[in-house]
Amino acid sequence: MQLRTSRTNLPQVNTSFLQSDFSKITRSLEQKNHSVSLHPFINFRGQILVGEFLFPIQKFSFRQKANFVFIENFPTNSFPKIEIVLERSGSIFNVKEFKIHPSDNGVQGEILYTRLFFAIADMKKCSLHFKDIDFPPFNFGFSEIPLQDMKVILYRAKLFRKLGFIERVFEKTKINVPENITPNEAQQIEILFRGLTEGEFTNPSDSFVTIYNYKVSKSDLQNNFLFSKREFSLEFNEKFFILGQFFEVGKVVIRVEKASVANPRKIRNVKENEVIDELRLNVFDSQIRYTFEKYNNAERLSKNKQKLKRFRDLLQNEEPNFLVSLLDESLAEIDDKSAIETLEALLQYYDFPDRFSVLKPKLQKNQWKVPIALTYPKQEPILLADAFVDMRTGKVEMEISFDELLKKGKKKAKEVFSIA
C-alpha cells in the first residue's frame, strides 16, 4: 500500500548549473606590474577567502584568449566549481563573469556549494589568493543577491543538510542528486528525516491525498466509510524510495484523523476485502500522523539524536549558525493560502453555516493568526475568534473551541441581525 501526498507550494529544486548567481560585479581588477605576466596558460594552487572562512587550497588555471582571461579551479573533495572570466579594457581587467556551481552530484557537494554561496552573499566580497606564484590577491565585489534567488538557495541548503544527515544514518547509502527534485520527493525527504529523529509526528498534507490499493475491511462497511467523516488508518512495510535509493525503515503507520472519501460515487457497491486501486481522501485539517515503529522507542531515538548532534557539531565548525539551524526548519512550511484552506475545511468538517468565514491571516513569529468572522453582504465582518496555524506542522490551535465558536456566532447573529 502506498500513500502519496503533495503540496504545490513547495518550490521545485533545480540542481543544474546556476549561471546568474554572481554575474553582477561592482568592482574591477586593475592590471599592475606583476613579476609574473599573464601567459596563455598557467596552472597554480589558489585559495578562495571569504571573511573568516578559509576554503581548501585548490588547483586553478589561467587561460588567456584575445582580450579575455579565463580562471577556473579543478575541485577536490566535492568543493564547488568556480569559473571566472575577465575582460581587458585598456589597462583594466573587468570581471565579466563569476560563476559557482556544485562540482559533482553528491549531497556533500550541494552542502559545500550552498555554504560558499551564502558566505559570499553575506560578505558581498571574496578574494582569490595565489600560493605558487608571486601575484597579489584578486579581490571581487558583488551586488545584492535578489531575494527570490536567496530563498531558492536557502531552501536548497535546508534540503541537502537534511539529506546529509539521512546519509549518515544509512551509512552504506550514497545519494546521487538528480537535476530536479520534485515537491513530492522533497516531502518524502522531510517525512524520512522526521521519522528518524522523532519517531512519531504530524506532518502537513495537501487537502487531498490518494491511497493506492486500499483493501476494504468489515469495519469500513459497518461504518459506512464511503459517506462519513472519520479517521482512516493504514500501515505499510515497504522501503522508502527517495531519489533512486531504497531506505529500510520498517513498518510505518499512517493516520488521517479528519477525512472523508472524496470520490464515493466512483467506488460504490464495494465489498469486504475488495481492493480499491485509488482511494482519494479529503483531509479537512491538512494533517497526517506518521509513526515509524522501528524508531519510535527511547533507545533508537537516543542513538539518532546523538548522530544528529554530531552532525550539527561538524557543520558548526565549518559554517554559520543560520545554516546549521536549517536542520530544525520544515521543508513544507505552510503559507497564508494553505492556512486559509485548512480553516475553511475545518469549518466544513464541523458543519458550520456559510456565514462563518475565514479572513486574511497575519504572520506572527512561526504561526499564522487567522481571524474567523461572521460575514453578510454589505456588512462589516464581525470578528468571533482567532485560530493559529503552525507554519511548520500545519497544526491548528483555536482561541476557543469549535463548539464555543458556533454558539458565539449564533448569539452574535441574533443580537446584530435579529436572526433566531
Uncertain residue segments = 1-37
Query: How much helicity do the residues have?
Result: 25-40%
Task: Supply the number of structural domains.
Answer: 3
The radius of gyration computed from the alpha-carbon positions, rounded to a whole number of angstroms, is 28 Å
- Main sheet? 9 strands, antiparallel
Helix/strand-derived category reads alpha+beta
Strand content: 25-35%
State the assembly state of the protein chains: single chain
Q: Based on DSSP secondary structure assignment, what is the total number of beta strands?
A: 25
Arithmetic mean pLDDT: 85
Distance between the termini: 49 Å
- Gross morphology is elongated
Total DSSP helices: 8
Descriptive overview:
- It contains 8 helices and 25 strands.
- It has 420 residues and is of the alpha+beta class.
- The chain folds into 3 domains: 2-9 and 179-296, no CATH class; 17-150, no CATH class; 336-417, Nuclear Transport Factor 2, Chain: A, CATH 3.10.450.
- The strands form 5 sheets. Strands 3, 4, 5, 6, 7, 8, 9, 10 and 11 form a 9-stranded antiparallel beta sheet that branches. Strands 1, 13, 14, 15, 18, 19 and 20 form a 7-stranded antiparallel beta sheet that branches. Strands 21, 22, 23, 24 and 25 form a 5-stranded antiparallel beta sheet that branches.
- Helix 2 (147-169) crosses helix 3 (183-198).
- It is elongated and about 85 Å long.
- It starts with a strand and ends with a helix.
- Residues 1-37 have low confidence and may be disordered.
